[in-house]
């Protein structure tokens, strides 16, 4: 329990650090944010409009007072309102975040389901035809950018063969089959790099575990290969694989921006790109903090999985 409390405390501390960095970064941007917002399109705003917007954004208050109000708003879940349409940032994120998470989870499920068994089998049959073919495929997948693969999937499966829709979104409750169909292509695009990484790490970890003394001892005792693999190899090999999976799932939060754009999937990428273009600082800050918080939650979840795989970790 103490180990878990320390991990949660560390995550909260890191979240505070991230929020502070984001706040300071906004105030280090050259120029007056109010003037920059009102100057969109080359228009020259008057002094009264600038002063009014500065007051609305709270930029006319001392920086420590702004910082305190910023942290107080975060503790209440108040991320402010969009400067473009005055829509609450928290509500916009709450609407779109589940769609991004669904895409990430679907891609992760596809990657893990394919890569873990493939990596294990390739290690057990090291040097065989499957090992060589799977390793070559993983190398190619890692080299292909996600937006290139997404474009190829649309070109081949949607335009040439007409097996799949090119993109879009339909709510699950409205049409479950259509929803899953539209989810499949972006999920595959998300999964490609993760699957290649998990395959390579699984193969390397299983090969390392197979060479350990306790595995050779288990074989000498007459245990079947399947039992040795299940009890003495896979469990130990999963720890480094879990580490890579946690890190890669964090990077997927950024990688989904391109995938959502290519497949017109209405996740967080749409408001983020629109906010950056319009200099909508509250929306940008809200999405950045949300993604940072998710990354920390993923790391915490990986720590819990480590503890389940190897209870000795909680004693450290």
What does this protein look like?
This protein is mainly α and 316 residues long. The chain folds into two domains: 2-89, no CATH class; 94-315, MetI-like (MetI-like fold, Orthogonal Bundle), CATH 1.10.3720. The chain is 77% helix and 0% strand. It has twelve helices and no strands. Helix 11 (269-278) packs antiparallel against helix 12.
Rg computed from alpha carbons, rounded to a whole number of angstroms: 24 Å
Outline the biggest β-sheet: none
How many H/I helices? 12
Counted up, domains total 2
Mean pLDDT: 82
Provide the helix percentage: over 70%
Distance between the termini: 13 Å
Relative strand content: under 5%
By CATH, the superfamily of the largest domain comes out as MetI-like
What's the level 1 CATH class of the largest domain? Mainly Alpha
Say how many strands there are: 0
Secondary structure class reads mainly alpha
Keywords: Cell membrane, Membrane, Transmembrane, Transmembrane helix, Transport
InterPro entries: BPD_transp_1_N, MetI-like, MetI-like_sf
Pfam family, one: BPD_transp_1_N
Family: Belongs to the binding-protein-dependent transport system permease family.
Sum this structure up briefly.
It holds the Pfam family BPD_transp_1. This protein is mainly alpha-helical and 316 residues long.
List keywords for this structure.
316 residues; mainly alpha; 12 helices; MetI-like fold; 2 domains
